[in-house]
Amino acid sequence: MAEGYVVTTKAYTTENMGTLSIYDLLYYFEKKGAMRVSDLHIKVGMPPAYRIDGDITYLKGPPITADVAQKLIFPILSDEHLQKFQKEDDIDCSYRMGTLQFRINVFHENDGISAAIRALSLDIPKAESIGFPNNVWEDIVECKQGLVLLTGITGAGKSTTIASLIGRISEKKACRIITLEDPIEYLLPNNHCMISQREVGRDVKSFNSGLRAMLREDPDVIIVGEMRDPETISMTLMAAETGHLVFSTLHTRDATGTITRVLDYFPSSRQNEVRNQLSLGLVYIICQKLIPRKDGTGRIAAMEILNNNYACANLIRVGKIEQIYSQLQTKTRLIPDEKMTTLERHLATLVKQDKIDLLEAKKWANDLKSFVDEMQAGRKQQ
After folding, report:
1. Is the pTM of this model over 0.85?
2. By Cβ atoms counted within 10 A, which residue in 8, 135, 163, 188 is the most buried?
């Protein structure tokens, strides 16, 4: 922690819970569970707020002052991170407390300093419990090479899904796994594997330089926290082409949008080259959203899954991305070359299973008409 600041210092007085320290605020995650309480927001001029089951909930108390914000935020920063934050506009880092790992972003804004703190349980959920609509995860953990992309908005559970898949790989195989994260999120157990987790800014200067070094470190499985620029994407695709199993993330809402986003990072003069690389290297795209459960006990994953079979690879290569959705709609059988689904089909399934509400499903569907068609198709089959 930063010198002169203590995590147990009582700093914020509530109406009904007494005066709390940042330790008290973080302990709430452990008490309630990180799968339900995902984030803590600290902002000058507002009470502290948790994100519970996807919704912001404020503590009962006065607005946070600049002094209180410092007493709540600075104790969970190292001296190095505090000095960096005071020189720059924001800082990403992590903090370990009890059974939880916290991902922290501290930044300057109009009213003063703010922090967004996300909780990640050290108990990585099993792949079976993540919520896959089929058993495609079993095929993914058996892959020897290629690119697996997990996509979705911030807070959609991408890191949790990757961690669950890596956890299963480490249970089954003796291999070398290297991660490149900003910051490190889940602490991955070695089991049968040798796992090295590297943090950008602490262990390596950038994603790009870390990837270059990683290819000389004899990895079997590579995790790239996020593909955020053309250089990182190029290196990630090259790693997938050269015999490594690579996991990475993007902030996109569907499979076709993911492919388009990757291509849009590059000028038109390079897009044919990147399409060829992607068609050869990609193995799966999993787009996910976390939907509130109907019984109010948390959230459940809804997924769109693309299996890059020959037909999809050819559509990527020739640039007919808009035709891929029809593959997701039709290639749904539980055979290795298919196992695809649209988000709308999975939402419809969850509604029919009485796990999510119909109106809630409509709000989260990417294509409302397709969702309605899936619901009607289900009724006809019954």
Report:
1. yes
2. 163
